[in-house]
Amino acid sequence: MIVLTADEDLAVQAKLNFSLGAQAYDTYLQGFRCTELSGGVVIAYARSEYMAAVISAEYSTQIADAVESVVGQPATMVLVLPCPR
């Protein structure tokens, strides 16, 4: 299991902002955080259950690509959960 550092998370966010564009990033990925990569599965958190579902459905491929390029390990699936309170 690889726990992403704060710098790695910021690098993933920067790559997503660049690839998706500022409008899509600001609309859907505000408050989004990638926390770990385990067995090819990226664990990430979104600001709500609704946003987690939207991000999973629309942006999983881009998230996996961004995490893979930052961490240097294969990312084959993305699990986006609502942020724990």
- Give the ordered list of helices and strands: EHHEEHE
Helix content: 40-55%
Distance between the termini: 24 Å
Estimated structural class: alpha+beta
Name the beta content range. 15-25%
Largest sheet: 4 strands, mixed
Q: Which descriptor suits the 3D outline? A: globular
CATH superfamily: DnaA, N-terminal domain
Mind telling me which CATH architecture this is?
2-Layer Sandwich
Number of domains: 1
Separate helix tally: 3
User: What's the CATH class, please?
Assistant: Alpha Beta
Say how many strands there are: 4
Estimate the mean pLDDT confidence: 95
Q: At the third CATH level, what is the topology name?
A: GMP Synthetase, Chain A, domain 3
Strand order of the largest sheet: 1-2-3-4
Enumerate the spans where pLDDT stays under 50 for 5 or more consecutive residues.
none
Radius of gyration: 11 Å
What's this model, at a glance?
The chain has 85 residues and is of the alpha+beta class. It has three helices and four strands.
Question: What this model shows, in words?
Answer:
The protein has 85 residues and is α+β, with helices and mostly antiparallel strands. It has a single domain, classed as GMP Synthetase, Chain A, domain 3 (2-Layer Sandwich), CATH 3.30.300. Helices cover 53% and strands 24% of the residues. The chain has a 4-stranded mixed sheet. Helix 1 packs across helix 2 (22-28) and helix 1 packs across helix 3. It is globular, with a radius of gyration of 11 Å. The protein starts with a strand and ends with a strand. The mean pLDDT is 95.
